[in-house]
Amino acid sequence: MSYSFNKKHVVAIDDFTVDEIKAIMEKAEELVPAAQGDVINTDLEGKLLATLFFEPSTRTRLSFEAAMKRMGGSCIGFARADTSSAKKGETLADTIRVAAGYADMIVLRHPQEGAAKLASKFSDVPVINAGDGAGHHPTQTLLDLFTIRKEKDEISNNHIGIAGDLKYGRTVHSLTKALSMFETEMTFISPPSLKMPKEITNILKKQGIEFKEVEDIKDALDELDVLYMTRIQRERFPSDKDYEEVAKSYHIDKDMLESAKDDLKVMHPLPRVDEIKVDVDGTDKARYFEQAANGVPIRMALLKLLQEG
Amino acid sequence: MKGKKEKKIKITPIEHGTVIDHIKAGQGMKVLRILDLVDTDIDSIVSMAMNVKSSKGKKDIVKVEDKELKNEEFDKISLISPNATVNIIRGYEVIEKHRVEIPDLARGIVRCKNRNCITNQREPVESEFEVIDEEPVRLKCTFCERELVGEEISEHVI
After folding, report:
1. Min Cα separation B76/chain A (Å)
2. ipTM, 2 decimals?
3. Whose CB has fewer CB within 10 Å in chain B, the N or C terminal residue?
4. B125–A121 C-beta distance less than 8 A
5. pLDDT score, position B2
6. pTM for the complete prediction?
7. Does A112 sit within 8 Å of B116, measured CB to CB?
8. According to the CATH classification, is domain B105-155 in 2.30.30.20?
9. A137 carries an active-site annotation
10. Could you give the 3-state DSSP secondary structure of residue A217?
11. Cβ-contact A11, A120 below 8 angstroms
């Protein structure tokens, strides 16, 4: 593909065009052997990545660090705000300017919405948003798309069901917006109180994309090619009893999946609690651990493309 | 006739400066704030009339003596009062009359309603909103993407 990647910063998934997303996925595919340690890659040798995590995040931080190191690069940074100078009252803008003076790229996780956008204004090296409060987490979406592509050969022409907390989950909002760039069919599965917000479904309507909304996984399961599960959080409900009554309808187990297509793939951004029973793990439908592992090649691809331009 | 006379007493003409007319009733003070006219360091005499009766109902009027406001200044007030008009006065005559125009981007005028937005923290940035709709005015924070619509905008004037 003769495509030049000229993104400076990565703040939100909708900053990308379809061609850019495809370019990242193609690069990620090439880098899978290096991500798994089967070949030695030194593309980012001598380069330094600053991982600034003002909020803890195991998977995202470790996979960025793994991605950098699998290409011969190094990492500096912190994993909690209380070990950073923010505790002394330093502004994010200053922390970013200092880190930009040390490193070649910055990965930022911050509890406030818009933090990555702010960082991008103060940094002369690329900033990658690794989650800003309830805002964006674009590399999660890239790895979700990459997983669908790997499992199904393409993203288009699949019927994708997204289940769980669709109201508050930033992951599912970004994923839905990204899927809307491809020709997919979508079904949203949630309790009425946690439906996909209108601002997201309006985007789909404007683009003429058909979608269904159902309350029960069973009502959609047999049609789906991909089931993307998310966790329903206890704090969204007034009482434990309310939560338990609703949440149990959004649990899947091995027996339930008998009625699904043979090649259904189940995904989950993790961590899961009990929405996917452990008896699903051993089936060939379970793809959530592969999905997590895909975080490394997709982040390798992004780091490489950002670094090389 | 009586009405006209009364109006003359209340809204005295100015020799030079700017008269902002047809401000939505109740928004006059916010217009002063948006235009930085509440600062005692400025040399101009600033006066305001509130709840002035007009053919279209009540309105507020702001007069700024000896200062001619520029478009980029007065367009800011369109966010809270899109029907306001700006009259530039020289020698008691109106020499220019403008309708305010809604800008594409509003910087440092309103604050984001999302308390967890990075612009509401102690950071060296101005708030910034993209104008995504004009009727009613709808703003979208370029940082956290939260939207402000209609009355919410005047409630969040900085």
Report:
1. 23
2. 0.87
3. N
4. yes
5. 46
6. 0.87
7. yes
8. yes
9. yes
10. helix
11. yes
